[in-house]
């Protein structure tokens, strides 16, 4: 029995089991559902035991529990791989917009509609079928690499206790690669793998002028206005080419390779359609010399997220306001150190604050970008597995935002490989989240091939 | 009996009467006190009748009443002068900071403490003593010019119905000059006259980008951010010399004369002290080539009064916000047309809005500056009267803000002359408002001389 045959033979059981798991409303962001998150962990642990995982444990955190399971390879010298996903889900409001109860999964043609079908229970679940299919095809009692599943319960509420969990269990999570199954492909017709996610750091700037709001009749035009200073400061954060002006900002940026740009350019990108998804934005904008995809995936940014000061209520109030505030965040790419960007921003703000204005800067949040070079052994191995499952070339993408992936790479000190089969059209985090059932099965197939590819590639790497 | 003798002989009666008027809490901004504003008008009208004004009327408006009184000159060819002031007062909160009940005036040395003592009942009241002193000194039964008092009841709440009142009674208010007694002098030791007030116009700008806030991970760096556009727009509103960049903004500005700059420069100005009064501002700032006093008195400005958009609450929120807003006001000087500035600003905003952003501009408020050249006959006549009262040279100032004065000049088509004897230290609009009693008597003396000076100057002018 080969992998596709095994999957075909077990598809009904697979979806029946998945639906049981999906029925547990494991909303980590809602304290009323924390008991359900725990039930979800226990259900999944029981299921992993049922299908034969020799080691299955529910790992407690200071918050909600994760599930750990390990199926060791027969050969003690075989590589180890951690598979990361999460079993908690997003809230479901507004309920009225759902076609079905979010926790009563509904099959509609090829689609399975319900909270968690794509993000992320469906994607985690295809690994259970994948590892079984691998062994069914090889006839061996164990996979050719040691497979360690780590499925957390707090991803949708910020993975607050995840780094601590990784540090606590660092030894047991030792591995040669980390497979992330919580991302999406370009489209159903264009299978692809993500190779990186941007990092993030944030800052809040406050500029102070007079001790109280001043009457602009008496003082306007003769004392510094903190709102003018803020406008000038933030306007100076980009040059005319849309480049960030912080000294040294681009020094450590790992440039895009010609190969990656070429592969990005082969993605069938419809800019007008993309602008529609971008809240009906009327025009693209950004750093000169880069395409829209390169800008969101592989270039760092400085973005003003909020700005306020002075009179913001109805009507006029002719004041020179006492203060101005802004929240700024920086998306970072491979090579950049969040702490260095924070420091550079602090210095830059102080240097660009005009006489008579005092600046306060509070920085926070420091997530490094994560990145897996296309040419690396683990990415190439996963690409072969994906191509075997899809029967066509697999392209590459990146993602603009970041989750707990950087922590995994940093703490476990292993390369990340993104094998995610969600779609942008899956409406994750929104009403009527769905997964394409054929894609979940493709995921199982790719996962089955992955262990053979890794067994070869990582051993010789 | 000369003017000083008459004033000395009547000072006790003068302050006793003034205190009666001050005891009426004529707070126009507080509907609970609107009955008191009416009582204040009636009290003052009765007083004017008592001291012999042949015509005294309470003029109704759609809001609160004004008092009109006329004492015609004996000679029908004599000039007419309107004296403007107001009998309504500011609110008195916080009450706990007053040394006395705000409406139970307290004498403390030379000071009279109470709401309205300086702004503006005290200043209006010195004209009653002034006109009596004039006639006592001349022995004539009428002043040498026709004196028309116009004392409104809504100045502290925006003079909403004042233009309408002026238009309704335009014929009866016909005059050759308008004396404004609602301003202040440089200081007790440096008597001065105001020669102009800046005008004002306002605008609110809204910039719109995507239809909803976007996740900056997915879209940041590739779509226009309205907050960036707002910062760039407002930063571009001034050049490096602090000049407003709107095309044509300075074209119509009446330049300061060398004489006026010289006279301003003779005022004993302590910049460090001024910065302290400017809310502890840490440094002066403004248009290059002008002193602080010139900047606040005689140069136009563009001031950001408020700015907001995106996430302004606690914590971070990594969004590209859908919109940004700002409130801007322009202080205008003699020569500038508020409507022209509004139009120029609209055009400029639209031209400087980047692709992908839509701008909405709402303009409002259009108060022209008012200005009386130092060399004009009426200003010189008032200067002579002031110098006779003070026995020393009178210098010139201007004021940065504006009240209903421009409407008076526009609708009555007569020049303004500012004979105001308040002091910056009078704490008008604040707890413990006070007037220096010797200054109120000097005001009466100057007012007494004024009618003789005007009789000569305006007849021959
Ligand atoms: Zn997810
Ligand atoms: Zn006043």
TrEMBL record, chains A, B:
Keywords: Hydrolase, Metal-binding, Protease. Pfam families: M20_dimer, Peptidase_M20. InterPro entries: Cyt/Met_Dipeptidase (IPR051458), Peptidase_M20 (IPR002933), Peptidase_M20_dimer (IPR011650). GO terms for biological process: proteolysis. GO terms for molecular function: metal ion binding; peptidase activity. Residues 196-355 form the Peptidase M20 dimerisation domain. It comes from the Bacteria. Signal peptide: none annotated. PANTHER family: BETA-ALA-HIS DIPEPTIDASE, SUCCINYL-DIAMINOPIMELATE DESUCCINYLASE. This is Acetylornithine deacetylase/succinyl-diaminopimelate desuccinylase-like protein.
